[in-house]
Structure formats: structure tokens, C-alpha cells
Specification:
The chain is α/β, with parallel strands linked by helices. It has one domain: Rossmann fold, CATH 3.40.50. 40% of the residues lie in helices and 18% in strands. It is built from 6 helices and 5 strands. It has a 5-stranded parallel sheet with strand order 3-2-1-4-5. The longest helix has 17 residues. It is elongated. The chain starts with a strand and ends in a 15-residue tail after the last helix. Bound molecules: 4'-phosphopantetheine. The site of 4'-phosphopantetheine has 9 residues, from strand 1 and helix 4.
């Protein structure tokens, strides 16, 4: 039985992540999506919200579980009895930092191997930051994220309606 963890910020999860999860679940017996809770980082969604959005975006059944963690990804892997860390690659530009992380993780915990999975071609330009930026400026994000994530993003990022009309009038 080979267990893999897929750590990340998932702020929020998008279709590129879901593609990687689908591929991983075809390879490994158990896949645990690990939502990082890093107190030094500010997120749009809390760790609980991000983990719930992952759960709501996954197809029913399957071998995928969701948990949140703080601390090192390798410690999370060991706690989950995983021997594999999955990371998704969109383009060659991702490889530089991913390679660094993989080697550092191997140094920290030689029993845990990093496996890179390439996302589908349709997802290469996707990133959570870009999707949040587009949504915050009123752009369409349908097809980039699952319907629950789209609803949550719209709820949190919808531009506020101008409720004090005189504030927005040009001076005469
Ligand atoms: O989705 P992200 O933000 O690209 O994921 C980065 C993540 C969470 C995989 C990475 O920051 C991480 O593993 N953080 C946990 C702390 C840790 O293990 N740091 C050492 C990495 S070599």
C-alpha cells in the first residue's frame, strides 16, 4: 500500500490542482491532500475553509482524503505514513523552486520521495493568485475552479457596491 501526500496552500483549490489529484489517485492507494496552515502567511481563506473547499471540489468516493497541517511537509508525510510527496508541475519555470524543495525534503527525510506530476495542458496557466485577482476585478472564473470554490470566491471578493452615492460623484 503506497500512501502519498499532496501538500499545498490551496488558497483556493483550482482545476489544475484537481487534475493533479485525479492523476495521483490513479497511481497511489491513498492520497492525502495536506492544506498548509502557516501562521506567517496571510490567506484569503482559513485552513478550515480551504480544506472544506477541497472536500467540496472532489468527486465522491475515491482514495483521496483531506487534512490540514502546520510545520514541515515531510513531518506531515511521516504522520500520514506516506512515502511520497506529490507536487504538480505546470511549466519548466516551476521546476527551479520545486527541485530545491524536493532536495531539501529528501535531506530532511530520506524515506520520503517527491513525485512530480504534470498537469493537463488546459491548466498550465492556472494559479490561485491569478484566479483571485481576476475574480476580485469582476472577471469570469467559471471553468477554472469548481462551483463551490467559485461561489466562495465571489462571496469573499465581490467588489463592494457603492452605497454612498455622493462619495462617488465628480466634484462640480
Ligand atoms: O501551494 P504552494 O504554496 O506552492 O505549496 C508550498 C508548500 C506548502 C508545499 C511548501 O511551502 C511547504 O512544504 N511548506 C511547509 C513547510 C516546509 O516543509 N518547508 C520546507 C520546504 S523544503
Amino acid at each position: 500500500m503506497t500512501v502519498a501526500v499532496y501538500p499545498g496552500s490551496f488558497d483556493p483549490i483550482h482545476n489544475g490542482h484537481l487534475d493533479v489529484i485525479a492523476r495521483a489517485s490513479e497511481i497511489f492507494d491513498r492520497v492525502v491532500v495536506g492544506v498548509l496552515d502557516n501562521a506567517l502567511k496571510s490567506y484569503l481563506f482559513s485552513a478550515t475553509e480551504r480544506a472544506n473547499l477541497v472536500r467540496q471540489s472532489l468527486p465522491p468516493g475515491g482514495v483521496v482524503e483531506v487534512a490540514h497541517f502546520s510545520g514541515l511537509a515531510v513531518s506531515f508525510a511521516v504522520a500520514q505514513q506516506a512515502t511520497v510527496i506529490i507536487r504538480g508541475l505546470r511549466a519548466v519555470s516551476d521546476l527551479d523552486s520545486e527541485f530545491q524543495m524536493a532536495l531539501m525534503n529528501r535531506r530532511l527525510e530520506p524515506r520520503v520521495h517527491t513525485v512530480f506530476l504534470t498537469t493537463g495542458f488546459a491548466n498550465v496557466y492556472m494559479s490561485s493568485s491569478l484566479i483571485k485577482d481576476v475574480c476580485a476585478h469582476g472577471g469570469g472564473i467559471t471553468g477554472l475552479v469548481s462551483p463551490p470554490v467559485e461561489a466562495a470566491l465571489r462571496h469573499r471578493l465581490a467588489p463592494p457596491a457603492p452605497d454612498i452615492p455622493e462619495l462617488f460623484e465628480e466634484a462640480r
